[in-house]
């Protein structure tokens, strides 16, 4: 057989996306592939959304539980959220339509550390996984599945689902074959063994996913591209943030706390994180490595410039122009990139062992160093915690980056008390804004507050924060972490009431 489906048994199951969508029953839990716009199924979700819409028009409710690796794209999250075809979404999303539905209270969402998803599914916490819909880039003659541009939770979905629909995507480069490392050694306690990764380049598994042909109920062919948003080119603010991070890393090397080639980098999603990577390209470091979850444009550029020796991740998150570059010459990146299941790419044990340098974007930080990564004004979810907690808690140095203001200056990213906590003060080593960098390691809460206000707050908000902190030190219930409880969230309240945190 030729083409991407080289196994007769699998080839005999080829159907249209519409026929495959008919095989999904209302109320089922469906595990779909996809991680930050890479490797999600392109055809079946749209066909399912049409079926849901028709079903709703006929007065027959139809919703499914939708589990993925992380965020996907409008054709999946957007299409199914639009027709209100999801009863529970997990573990991470960033789609504007599903975000709006979640925040309007019309879609239930549970936001989970990305490394925890597989074990929770194995435990049965979310019920049975009825069906998996997984994109692959090919099927070998002996019936193994060649993963595509993300691995995410696909291993778990294929193992746990009763039935499987495969999408074979010939848009994905054939040269992805060999780039993946699928580890089949995970188990639930008390049977766990150490994950034997001691360097980001280590390969501990096999290149292909396994799935018994009997489980596969349909195979759908597609040649649709991954859809990732383009990054905005680094602006002045993100360049300043990147500059502070670089300066910090250089001083850590000078002080003998980091080796010259640094330690494996983890970089989160978003424009600021991408700008920090661009900054590293211009910096003095060579022989870098990354143990991270997504490979975005900045990281690809670091590989191309020879600064980054190799990167381990679970997915790509590339802009359309970077994808074109990558697909034209995939083979050239093969020995520099390893894609793993997300329970391994984000594994706390490995992150701790390797000593990752974690850099993640945030919504807001408070004066004591607690971080909100997910909720605007404490109640409106933006994306989700993603892998930031997997890395921050276990990193060698945990860095959080943000512009000091949001919403055209109406919002301070440094507040008296965060309106939602994702990362506690104990997991936060360094906070960086365009104003400066606060190294919080070794400081008591009050010293942290002084440093964050002085180094990170925008000058317009700095006097207000000083005023709050001074008064809190006079009348707080306790003076270890002084707060004025009737005022600590008043900045957020002011924004909700009047559209600005400014007085
Ligand atoms: O809203 O788009 O309506 O203008 O939040 O903010 O400035 O574009 O920031 O792209 O760097 O993302 C935290 C969301 C930052 C991201 C977050 C509003 C702002 C804008 C986005 P608009 P920016 P970025 C590994 C790591 C959690 C997951 C994670 C994130 C929108 O970094 O999702 O770290 N992190 N994963 O206006 C009100 C504030 C605000 C605010 C920003 N203080 N108050 N609105 N905004 N700060 C990767 C994975 O896990 C997959």
UniProtKB/TrEMBL annotation:
Q: Does the keyword Cell inner membrane apply?
A: no
Q: Which UniProt keywords apply?
A: Hydrolase, Transferase
Q: Out of the domains of life, which is the source?
A: Bacteria
Write out the residues that bind CoA: 268-272, 383, 387, 407
Sorted alphabetically, the Gene Ontology BP terms of this entry are: acetate metabolic process; acetyl-CoA metabolic process
Answer yes or no on keyword DNA-binding.
no
Q: Which GO terms describe its molecular function?
A: acetate CoA-transferase activity; acetyl-CoA hydrolase activity
Q: Which NCBIfam families does the UniProt entry name for this protein?
A: YgfH_subfam
Record-stated family = Belongs to the acetyl-CoA hydrolase/transferase family.
Descriptive protein name: Acetyl-CoA hydrolase/transferase family protein
Organism this protein belongs to: Saccharopolyspora aridisoli
Organism lineage string:
Bacteria, Bacillati, Actinomycetota, Actinomycetes, Pseudonocardiales
């Amino acid at each position: 057989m030729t083409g991407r489906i080289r196994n007769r048994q699998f080839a005999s199951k080829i159907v249209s996306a519409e026929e495959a969508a008919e095989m999904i029953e209302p109320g089922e839990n469906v595990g779909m592939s996809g991680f930050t716009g890479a490797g999600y199924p392109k055809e079946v979700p749209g066909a399912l959304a049409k079926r849901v819409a028709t079903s709703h028009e006929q007065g027959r409710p139809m919703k499914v539980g939708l589990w993925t690796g992380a965020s996907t794209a409008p054709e999946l999250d957007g299409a199914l959220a639009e027709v209100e075809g999801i009863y529970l979404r997990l573990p991470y999303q960033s789609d504007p339509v599903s975000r709006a539905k979640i925040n309007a209270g019309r879609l239930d969402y549970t936001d989970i550390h990305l490394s925890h998803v597989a074990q929770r599914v194995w435990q049965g916490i979310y019920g049975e996984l009825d069906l998996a819909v997984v994109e692959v880039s090919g099927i070998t003659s002996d019936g193994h599945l060649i993963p595509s541009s993300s691995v995410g939770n696909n291993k778990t979905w294929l193992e746990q689902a009763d039935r499987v629909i495969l999408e074979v995507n010939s848009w994905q480069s054939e040269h992805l074959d060999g780039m993946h490392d699928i580890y089949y050694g995970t188990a639930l306690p008390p049977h766990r063994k150490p994950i034997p990764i001691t360097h980001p380049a280590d390969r501990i598994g096999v290149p292909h996913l396994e799935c018994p042909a009997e489980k596969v109920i349909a195979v759908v062919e597609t040649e649709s591209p991954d859809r990732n948003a383009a990054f905005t080119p680094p602006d002045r603010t993100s360049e300043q943030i990147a500059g502070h991070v670089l300066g910090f890393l250089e001083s850590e090397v000078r002080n003998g706390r980091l080796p010259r080639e640094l330690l494996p980098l983890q970089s989160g999603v978003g424009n600021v994180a991408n700008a920090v990577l661009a900054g590293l390209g211009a910096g003095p470091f060579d022989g870098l490595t990354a143990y991270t979850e997504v490979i975005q444009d900045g990281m690809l550029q670091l590989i191309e410039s020879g600064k980054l020796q190799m990167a381990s991740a679970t997915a790509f998150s590339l802009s359309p122009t970077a994808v074109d570059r990558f697909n034209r010459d995939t083979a050239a990146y093969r020995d520099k990139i390893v894609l793993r299941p997300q329970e391994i790419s984000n594994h706390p044990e490995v992150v701790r062992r390797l000593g990752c340098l974690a850099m993640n974007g945030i919504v807001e930080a408070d004066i004591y160093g607690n971080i909100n990564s997910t909720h605007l004004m404490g109640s409106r979810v933006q994306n989700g915690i993603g892998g930031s907690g997997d890395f921050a808690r276990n990193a060698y140095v945990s860095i959080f980056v943000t512009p000091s203001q949001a919403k055209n200056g109406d919002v301070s990213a440094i507040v008296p008390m965060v309106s939602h906590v994702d990362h506690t003060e104990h997991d936060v080593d360094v906070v960086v804004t365009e104003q400066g960098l606060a190294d919080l390691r070794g400081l008591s809460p009050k010293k942290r507050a002084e440093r964050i206000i002085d180094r990170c707050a925008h000058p317009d908000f700095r006097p207000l924060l000083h005023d709050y902190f001074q008064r809190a030190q006079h009348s707080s219930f306790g003076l270890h972490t002084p707060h004025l409880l009737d005022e600590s969230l008043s900045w957020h309240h002011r924004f909700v009431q009047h559209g600005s945190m400014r007085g």
